[in-house]
């Protein structure tokens, strides 16, 4: 069946084209890809190629005729095939409305088996849209491979080429091999060659600049995962307030040294400051039950705990764990030493039982063995507060109008402001400070 | 005092190229020269010797062509006419450089120039000295032939590359002291003109430092041309012998003392730096050569030294030109546009030897996992057609990436061909690209292509 030859729409603004010459005459055999006629638009001259094999059956227009785009200008078909004597109706309106973009016109033309394609002086097959985009992007058509019929370059090819060109910057073959081997992204490398071409020296320069050695990777799981989740949750959900107080440790130091021999005799272990602090905290918590508290899971009630179950933050190789020393308010220093040493050992040996990690009502985190003066602990939920302990160091303090050196430690109390307010929390910390500064009461 | 932007002392291929580059940047430029414009290269080096080598090569081809059916009758030549032709070439080139200087509005100031730390240049002239000043001064004074302290040598009439062509009479025999690049080129030249040539070289081999295969090939070829090559040999003393002759005694590698009576002794035993122009500066020396940084700048800011006079780098004309361009660009505050690290090396012997990049030995020392491929010239169609089958193509590449580290070519026209290998190294093409590029047939360069395929283990012809 005879196929129409259309006046192609060569640009978005083209409305009509002038026929410059007929390269084939009626009755001439036409091979696919052979130019049939030449057309001039307001922008370019183009030879329109046959997209079908056969014979040129009809030419409806003469040289210099101005023909609207998408008008049938002739037919290609079998020899002696019947075609209309006059050109069929102008299809320009319907098609151009439906497909205003020139590249889409191309597609439509292909779909309707229209037998046109173009070839310009440069002998590179490309659609007018592809040419336009290439010009806009400053891309060279001769570098591209066309995906269209007969390797014609389509607009899409140009887009892809430009994208790829942006993706793969200019680099020497050796630089590419280097980059591939080292998994380096050439896009991040600034080339020193002509037009920004990347040489191997640019790669080594870039590496020296920006690339550091591959980090060691540790999966976030187990204790790490628990700590991460709980700290995130607490920091995000709980309105933290932290109070600081500097405590004079003179008496506590003295008391500890006095008790030390006896404690070792009874327990085989040393009395540490932490245990005395635990004793002091347990006493203070008994007197300030709103600190020894937690918020109910539905957040409807505040639970004031009758027992003081002290959590003790212990650093282990696997991460932070907080074993709980239950009923601390009933325990003397000997028991506290025994139990807390056992808990710490179990924690480091990963031998804590679940019940040893549950039921805490208050936590103590002591970083005093490090060069830490003070810090803001994050509350171990659902508890209402946590005590942070810094290092003890000789500090000048004022006393009766003169400056004296005292062993001082900063205690920090973070509390959940949903559960407790600043004044009662401050009262607790003050009580604790007094107990620590005059610790003999603890022995009662 | 005359003020300039840039003053260049010396007008050899380092100095005059630097001057032209400076003029292109719009700098007010002066060149100080106490001899002919063009320096050693044009007057006493590359150009005279290459012109004379061309004559020797043509003579050899004419003589060889009898075997190809070319009938010439008796072939003879006139050495004085050859020298005249050489002079014509030299003066044409000199006129060319002079014209370029004029076009660039570069002042050429004749006289011996010296410089101090303030970058004041004093030019000694007949009547009075001229003083110039510029914020940037480039010293490109080059080197002079070195005559070793051999007993009698300095006192006896001898020639160097500076004076060899001053005599219009062709010697019938010539003793060449030193078998380096310069020595072997003159050996080929004079052997080609049927002079009886002996090379006395102290080192174990001729062309010390160059590719060993190339040195061996050339030695073999020299001996075929009738040259006596004495290596591991020491020149003991030189004496004026009978009329128009010199008696030279040397100890050969077996410890045997030999005496040779020759027309001339040509000393090609290295070159010494012409550093007297820097006596009033505080530049640093290394064995007489001047220490410079990567921009060819000395420790005196704004004072540059380029070419043979600079410490390090290849002592070659094109290296000097490249360094001159770099120095000028740096002095102008520009990013140096030329890579001075990759310098091709050409030896104009019969056969020619050209190399670029690292030798196999250097590459291994640097730590590369080296694979070397050698393709002999024998099977090459073009070489056969030319009747010049001596030679080989060697390619040195790193196994990891196929990075081309060096190439050595020996054979006809290889000095023209080394550029392809240099381009691959410069543009960081690897052996795969070399093997994938079509080479025209029949050409000598096909061997480079063949070597690349061979390196990849997919030889085509071999």
Automatic annotation (TrEMBL), chain A:
<dbReference type="InterPro" id="IPR050743">
    <property type="entry name" value="2-oxoacid_DH_E2_comp"/>
</dbReference>
<feature type="region of interest" description="Disordered">
    <location>
        <begin position="78"/>
        <end position="155"/>
    </location>
</feature>
<dbReference type="Pfam" id="PF02817">
    <property type="entry name" value="E3_binding"/>
</dbReference>
<dbReference type="Pfam" id="PF00198">
    <property type="entry name" value="2-oxoacid_dh"/>
</dbReference>
<dbReference type="GO" id="GO:0016407">
    <property type="term" value="F:acetyltransferase activity"/>
</dbReference>
<keyword id="KW-0670">Pyruvate</keyword>
<feature type="domain" description="Lipoyl-binding">
    <location>
        <begin position="2"/>
        <end position="77"/>
    </location>
</feature>
<feature type="compositionally biased region" description="Polar residues">
    <location>
        <begin position="105"/>
        <end position="121"/>
    </location>
</feature>
<dbReference type="InterPro" id="IPR003016">
    <property type="entry name" value="2-oxoA_DH_lipoyl-BS"/>
</dbReference>
<dbReference type="InterPro" id="IPR004167">
    <property type="entry name" value="PSBD"/>
</dbReference>
<dbReference type="Pfam" id="PF00364">
    <property type="entry name" value="Biotin_lipoyl"/>
</dbReference>
<feature type="domain" description="Peripheral subunit-binding (PSBD)">
    <location>
        <begin position="125"/>
        <end position="162"/>
    </location>
</feature>
<dbReference type="GO" id="GO:0005737">
    <property type="term" value="C:cytoplasm"/>
</dbReference>
<dbReference type="InterPro" id="IPR001078">
    <property type="entry name" value="2-oxoacid_DH_actylTfrase"/>
</dbReference>
<dbReference type="InterPro" id="IPR000089">
    <property type="entry name" value="Biotin_lipoyl"/>
</dbReference>
<dbReference type="GO" id="GO:0031405">
    <property type="term" value="F:lipoic acid binding"/>
</dbReference>
<keyword id="KW-0808">Transferase</keyword>
<feature type="domain" description="Peripheral subunit-binding (PSBD)">
    <location>
        <begin position="170"/>
        <end position="207"/>
    </location>
</feature>
<dbReference type="InterPro" id="IPR011053">
    <property type="entry name" value="Single_hybrid_motif"/>
</dbReference>
<comment type="similarity">
    <text>Belongs to the 2-oxoacid dehydrogenase family.</text>
</comment>
<protein>
    <recommendedName>
        <fullName>Dihydrolipoamide acetyltransferase component of pyruvate dehydrogenase complex</fullName>
        <ecNumber>2.3.1.-</ecNumber>
    </recommendedName>
</protein>
<keyword id="KW-0012">Acyltransferase</keyword>
TrEMBL record, chain B:
<dbReference type="InterPro" id="IPR036188">
    <property type="entry name" value="FAD/NAD-bd_sf"/>
</dbReference>
<keyword id="KW-0520">NAD</keyword>
<feature type="binding site">
    <location>
        <begin position="178"/>
        <end position="185"/>
    </location>
    <ligand>
        <name>NAD(+)</name>
    </ligand>
</feature>
<feature type="disulfide bond" description="Redox-active">
    <location>
        <begin position="41"/>
        <end position="46"/>
    </location>
</feature>
<feature type="binding site">
    <location>
        <position position="113"/>
    </location>
    <ligand>
        <name>FAD</name>
    </ligand>
</feature>
<dbReference type="InterPro" id="IPR012999">
    <property type="entry name" value="Pyr_OxRdtase_I_AS"/>
</dbReference>
<protein>
    <recommendedName>
        <fullName>Dihydrolipoyl dehydrogenase</fullName>
        <ecNumber>1.8.1.4</ecNumber>
    </recommendedName>
</protein>
<feature type="active site" description="Proton acceptor">
    <location>
        <position position="441"/>
    </location>
</feature>
<keyword id="KW-0274">FAD</keyword>
<keyword id="KW-0963">Cytoplasm</keyword>
<dbReference type="GO" id="GO:0050660">
    <property type="term" value="F:flavin adenine dinucleotide binding"/>
</dbReference>
<comment type="similarity">
    <text>Belongs to the class-I pyridine nucleotide-disulfide oxidoreductase family.</text>
</comment>
<dbReference type="InterPro" id="IPR004099">
    <property type="entry name" value="Pyr_nucl-diS_OxRdtase_dimer"/>
</dbReference>
<dbReference type="InterPro" id="IPR006258">
    <property type="entry name" value="Lipoamide_DH"/>
</dbReference>
<keyword id="KW-0547">Nucleotide-binding</keyword>
<keyword id="KW-0285">Flavoprotein</keyword>
<dbReference type="GO" id="GO:0004148">
    <property type="term" value="F:dihydrolipoyl dehydrogenase (NADH) activity"/>
</dbReference>
<feature type="binding site">
    <location>
        <position position="201"/>
    </location>
    <ligand>
        <name>NAD(+)</name>
    </ligand>
</feature>
<dbReference type="Pfam" id="PF07992">
    <property type="entry name" value="Pyr_redox_2"/>
</dbReference>
<dbReference type="GO" id="GO:0006103">
    <property type="term" value="P:2-oxoglutarate metabolic process"/>
</dbReference>
<keyword id="KW-1015">Disulfide bond</keyword>
<feature type="domain" description="Pyridine nucleotide-disulphide oxidoreductase dimerisation">
    <location>
        <begin position="343"/>
        <end position="451"/>
    </location>
</feature>
């Amino acid at each position: 069946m005879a196929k129409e030859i259309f006046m192609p729409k060569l640009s978005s603004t083209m409305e009509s084209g002038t026929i410059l010459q007929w390269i084939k005459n009626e009755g001439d055999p036409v091979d696919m890809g052979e130019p049939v006629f030449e057309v001039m638009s307001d922008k370019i001259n183009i030879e329109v190629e046959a997209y079908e094999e056969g014979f040129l059956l009809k030419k409806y227009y003469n040289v210099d005729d101005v023909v609207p785009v998408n008008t049938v200008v002739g037919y290609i078909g079998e020899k002696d095939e019947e075609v209309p004597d006059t050109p069929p109706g102008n299809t320009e309106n319907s098609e151009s409305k439906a497909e205003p973009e020139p590249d889409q016109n191309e597609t439509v033309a292909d779909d309707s088996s229209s037998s046109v394609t173009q070839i310009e002086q440069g002998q590179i097959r490309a659609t007018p849209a592809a040419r336009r985009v290439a010009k806009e992007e400053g891309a060279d058509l001769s570098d591209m491979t066309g995906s269209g019929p007969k390797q014609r370059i389509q607009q899409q090819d140009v887009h892809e080429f430009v994208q790829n060109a942006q993706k793969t910057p200019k680099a020497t073959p050796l630089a590419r091999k280097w980059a591939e081997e080292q998994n380096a992204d050439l896009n991040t490398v600034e080339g020193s060659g002509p037009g920004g071409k990347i040489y191997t020296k640019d790669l080594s320069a870039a590496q020296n600049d920006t690339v550091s050695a591959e980090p060691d990777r540790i999966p976030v799981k187990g204790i790490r995962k628990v700590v991460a989740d709980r700290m995130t949750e607490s920091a995000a959900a709980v309105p933290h307030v932290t109070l600081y107080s500097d405590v004079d440790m003179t008496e506590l130091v003295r008391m500890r040294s006095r008790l030390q021999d006896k404690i070792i005799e009874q327990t085989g272990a040393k009395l540490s400051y932490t245990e005395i602090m635990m004793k002091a905290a347990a006493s203070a918590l008994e007197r300030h039950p709103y600190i020894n508290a937690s918020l109910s899971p539905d957040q409807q009630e505040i639970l004031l705990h009758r027992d003081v179950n002290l959590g003790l933050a212990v650093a282990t190789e696997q991460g932070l764990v907080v074993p709980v020393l239950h009923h601390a308010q009933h325990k003397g220093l000997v028991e506290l030493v025994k139990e807390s040493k056992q808990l710490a050992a179990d924690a480091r040996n990963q031998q804590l039982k679940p019940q040893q990690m549950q039921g805490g009502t208050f936590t103590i985190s002591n970083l005093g063995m490090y060069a830490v003066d003070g810090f803001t602990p994050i509350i171990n939920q659902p508890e209402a507060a946590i005590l942070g302990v810094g290092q003890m160091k000789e500090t000048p303090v004022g006393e009766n109008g003169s400056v004296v050196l005292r062993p001082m430690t900063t205690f920090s109390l973070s509390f959940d402001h949903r559960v407790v307010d600043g004044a009662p929390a401050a009262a607790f910390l003050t009580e604790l400070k007094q107990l620590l500064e005059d610790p003999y009461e603890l022995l009662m | 005092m005359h003020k300039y932007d840039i003053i260049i002392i010396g007008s050899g291929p380092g100095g005059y190229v630097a001057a032209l580059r400076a003029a292109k940047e719009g700098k007010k430029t002066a060149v100080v020269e106490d001899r002919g414009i063009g320096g050693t290269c044009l007057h006493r080096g590359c150009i005279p010797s290459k012109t004379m080598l061309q004559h020797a090569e043509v003579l050899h081809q004419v003589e060889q062509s009898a075997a190809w059916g070319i009938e010439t009758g008796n072939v003879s030549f006139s050495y004085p006419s050859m020298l005249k032709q050489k002079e014509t070439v030299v003066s044409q080139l000199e006129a060319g450089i002079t014209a370029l200087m004029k076009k660039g509005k570069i002042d050429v100031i004749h006289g011996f120039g010296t410089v101090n730390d303030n970058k004041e240049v004093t030019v000694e002239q007949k009547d009075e000295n001229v003083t110039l000043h510029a914020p940037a001064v480039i010293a490109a004074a080059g080197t002079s032939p070195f005559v070793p302290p051999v007993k009698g040598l300095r006192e006896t009439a001898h020639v160097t590359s500076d004076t060899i062509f001053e005599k219009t009479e062709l010697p019938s025999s010539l003793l060449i002291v030193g078998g380096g690049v310069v020595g072997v080129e003159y050996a080929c030249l004079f052997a080609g003109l049927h002079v009886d040539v002996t090379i006395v070289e102290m080192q174990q081999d001729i062309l010390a430092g160059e590719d060993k295969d190339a040195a061996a090939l050339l030695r073999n070829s020299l001996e075929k041309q009738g040259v006596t090559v004495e290596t591991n040999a020491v020149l003991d003393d030189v004496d004026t012998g009978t009329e128009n002759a010199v008696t030279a005694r040397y100890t050969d590698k077996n410890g045997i003392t030999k005496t040779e009576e020759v027309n001339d002794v040509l000393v090609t035993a290295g070159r010494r730096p012409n550093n007297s122009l820097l006596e009033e500066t505080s530049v640093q020396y290394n064995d007489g050569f001047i220490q410079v940084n990567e921009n060819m700048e000395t420790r005196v800011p704004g004072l540059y030294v380029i070419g043979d006079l600079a410490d390090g780098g290849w002592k070659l004309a094109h290296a000097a030109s490249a360094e001159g361009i770099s120095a000028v660009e740096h002095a102008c505050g520009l990013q140096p546009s030329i890579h001075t690290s990759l310098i091709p090396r050409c030896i104009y012997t019969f056969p020619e030897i050209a190399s670029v990049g690292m030798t196999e030995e250097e590459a291994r020392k640097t730590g590369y996992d080296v694979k070397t491929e050698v393709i002999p010239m024998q099977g090459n169609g073009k070489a056969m057609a030319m009747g010049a089958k001596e030679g080989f193509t060697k390619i040195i590449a790193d196994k990891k990436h196929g990075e081309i580290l060096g190439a050595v070519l020996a054979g006809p026209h290889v000095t023209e061909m080394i550029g392809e290998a240099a381009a691959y190294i410069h543009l960081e093409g690897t052996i795969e690209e070399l093997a994938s590029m079509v080479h025209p047939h029949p050409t000598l360069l096909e061997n480079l292509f063949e070597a690349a395929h061979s390196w990849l283990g997919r030889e085509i012809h071999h």
